Amino acid sequence: MSLFTLDKIGPWLTPLLLCAGAQAHSPYLKPNTFSAEEQRKQVTVEASFAEGDLRPDVAMKSDAFHVIGPDGRKLALTPAAALKEATYLEVPLGAGNGTYLVSSGVRKGRLAKGVLRDGKVHFAERAEDTQPDDKPIEVQSITRADVYVSRGRPSAADFDTDGVGIYPVTQPYDLYAGAPVIVRVRDSRQPLAGETVTVIADGQNYVSHKQAEQDFTTNAAGEVSFKPKTAGLYLLQVRVRRASADNPALWISTTATLTIEVQPQP
Length: 266
What we know:
The protein is built from one helix and 20 strands. It has 266 residues and is mainly beta. It is globular, with a radius of gyration of 18 Å.
């Protein structure tokens, strides 16, 4: 599996990704359309990190960009343009009509120093912030960003994926304001219970009554359900932290996101 090291996008970003708050920089993919007409042969996807609204701030780089077509075939993607604040992908829709998964793939970041306190990972910037019972650990950051787009008539979106990801149980082309949206957090198709999914509404810089971020906890099936108040783009984010299977002093912190488009009620 091809992994990209985050030192190429700035050493300051890794600590932000490891922070608990969703207001840290989040990875995202944003296509120029979620529903392409049948005659359209490609879509353009913006890949970046943002804080709050989906405005590019730090370009996302990855050796693992790819698209999976409705035929289940995986195609590696090479960026068409790589700028300082955003990377742009031209994603071919050559598998015909149906739904495609565009992904950054699994991206490996730097190691960070942390402590284990009461079974949870903490990051102490100063020595005086530590407590006597803290256990020093190292934390490896992993990120993944996904988005689904359709060409012509959509198809079921259920693809095999590696690592932690957010899977849309409610099909991504069938999301409406005020209606339930169900997603499942899974690790290589296995559901993850007890994880927190944060829902972030885009475009809050332009509204007088802002939508606060919402947190939901996955059930035994790894699922959460929420009702988006308004049409627009939403970023769903989960952060999963686990001790390494072969090294208890090394923890893996995986941040996965899914960008969705919510339509107005018909």
